[in-house]
Amino acid sequence: MISGRVFIATSLDGYIARENGDIEWLISRDDPAEDHGYNSFIGSIDGIVFGRGTYEAVIKMESWFYSKPVVVLSQSLMQEDIPDHLKTKVHVLNASPSEAVRYFASKGWKNVYVDGGKVIQSFLREGLISEMTITQVPVLLGSGRPLFGPLKNDISLIHLETVAFPSGLVQSKYRVDRKTT
Ligand SMILES: NC(=O)c1ccc[n+]([C@@H]2O[C@H](COP(=O)([O-])OP(=O)(O)OC[C@H]3O[C@@H](n4cnc5c(N)ncnc54)[C@H](OP(=O)(O)O)[C@@H]3O)[C@@H](O)[C@H]2O)c1
Question: 21 CB less than 6 Å from ligand 1?
Answer without folding.
Answer: yes
